[in-house]
Write a structure and sequence with these properties.
single chain, 397 residues, alpha/beta, TIM Barrel, Lyase, Ornithine Decarboxylase, Chain A, domain 1, eight-stranded mixed beta sheet, seven-stranded parallel beta sheet, disordered C terminus, binds pyridoxal-5'-phosphate
């Protein structure tokens, strides 16, 4: 992906984020097909929280709906409200649940809360009574993450007293894995057993369990609805193996100035980098305010025409300095662009340099970047093979 140079609006942009909606769609098809490989009609949702992991929920949502995606998850009610405008008629589930007093907002915008405890369930039932309508609800059962969801005792109450759901339409029951990216972690199988037991005790409602990495744990984990986020956007769901997903973003930053420096001169705040030889330094237009973390100091590089160029000195709020001594002068002039993310640097690799994960790199992508949406055709969609392994402690049936 390169920046289309013929766009007037991009002439003044300091940095340009290019999002390939076609690649996101191809990733979605690949994950959906991994579920369908089981021979059951499994659906694949899309998690669009945090602005679709930084890529732009209001662009990604409709693109995936056009691809056939019928279920969408966000974290906040306001994220759901924003999406509702571009996704009329399709279910949008709010993972963070029902906030007291927000029932009217959910009803007005036709958002479905993911209910996380009995108190929320009761409040939503009361709303159903007030509005005199069977409202949709999702139940989130905690099976070991201990973050959100009905605990095991409350889950037992639901099983014993089905009347507690009266007046609601149970759209989905779900749970969330704590260590799905570690394929051999026994916690996966333990959570699966608990979730299975609950699903069996609540017949009739569709079930959803697998996030991106969970899909790769095999068909036992798929249930009725897959729930990927990260993998849609190209983050590697299998950190110990080659990434099966297509990259979806590229980031190019403009060279603002190029200067000569002498040996032993320092560059940037605190004089944190000192030149060992005379050379040239280029200053480019992004910084920590754009999600290019300060933790990257002296730990990463960018690319100019495929050539690796070290980032030097402290990351500033709006600026980064790079050592271009070894780049021919004609290839690094003010106004030129350098590749920050792209074919030579994935969000996952930059994340390693910043000692974080690809999720944090993606969701921190700067709000100041000019954004270009492309829709490249991809017929080479990933065909993730899921590990058809039997979980150590999962009960079979
Ligand atoms: C964020 C989230 C997901 C998506 O997880 P990925 O690892 O990004 O695929 C699924 N379910 C819940 C409850 C989540 O919070």
């Amino acid at each position: 992906m390169s920046v289309p140079a013929d766009n007037d609006a991009l002439r003044r942009a300091g940095a340009v984020l290019t999002v390939d909606l076609g690649a996101i769609a191809a990733n979605w098809r690949g994950l959906r097909d991994a579920g369908r490989a089981n021979g059951r009609p499994i659906d694949c949702a899309a998690v669009l929280k945090a602005d679709a992991y930084g890529t732009g929920a209001e662009k990604v949502g409709p693109r995936l709906a056009a691809e056939g995606c019928r279920h969408f998850f966000v974290a906040h009610i306001d994220e759901g409200i924003a999406l509702r405008n571009v996704l009329p008629g399709l279910p949008i589930y709010v993972l963070n649940g029902l906030l007291a007093g927000a029932e009217g907002d959910l009803v007005e915008h036709e958002l479905t809360p993911v209910l996380n405890h009995l108190g929320q369930l009761n409040a939503w039932r009361a709303a159903a009574q007030r509005y005199n309508r069977a409202l949709d609800a999702v139940l989130h059962i905690d099976t070991g993450l201990n973050r959100l969801g009905f605990n095991q005792e409350e889950a037992q109450v639901l099983i014993n007293e089905r009347g507690r759901l009266r007046g609601l339409r149970l759209a989905l029951i779900m749970s969330h894995l704590a260590a799905s990216e570690e394929q051999s972690n026994p916690v996966n199988g333990e959570q699966l057993s608990r979730f299975r037991a609950f699903v069996r005790a609540m017949p009739g409602a569709p079930a959803s369990f697998a996030n991106s990495s969970g899909i790769f744990l095999g068909p036992d984990y798929h249930f009725d609805l897959l729930r990927p986020g990260a993998a849609l956007y190209g983050i590697n769901p299998l950190p110990e193996r080659d990434n099966p997903m297509l990259p979806t973003v590229a980031l190019h930053a403009r060279v603002l100035q190029v200067r000569r420096i002498d040996a032993f001169q320092t560059v940037g705040y605190g004089g944190a980098w000192r030149a060992a030889r005379a050379g040239r330094v280029a200053t480019i237009a992004l910084g920590y305010a754009d999600g290019y973390f300060r933790a990257l100091i002296n730990r990463t590089h960018v690319h100019i025409a495929g050539r690796r160029v070290p980032v030097i000195g402290r990351i500033s709020m709006d600026l980064v300095t790079i050592d271009v001594t070894d780049v021919p002068e004609t290839e690094c002039q003010p106004g030129d662009t350098v590749e920050v993310l792209g074919p030579h640097m994935s969000p996952d690799e930059l994340a390693e340099h910043a000692r974080t994960n690809g999720y944090e790199i993606m969701t921190s992508l700067g709000r100041r970047y000019a954004r270009v949406y492309v829709d490249n055709p991809h017929t080479d969609e990933p065909a993730p093979e899921s590990e058809a392994q039997t979980p150590a402690s999962g009960d079979q049936a």
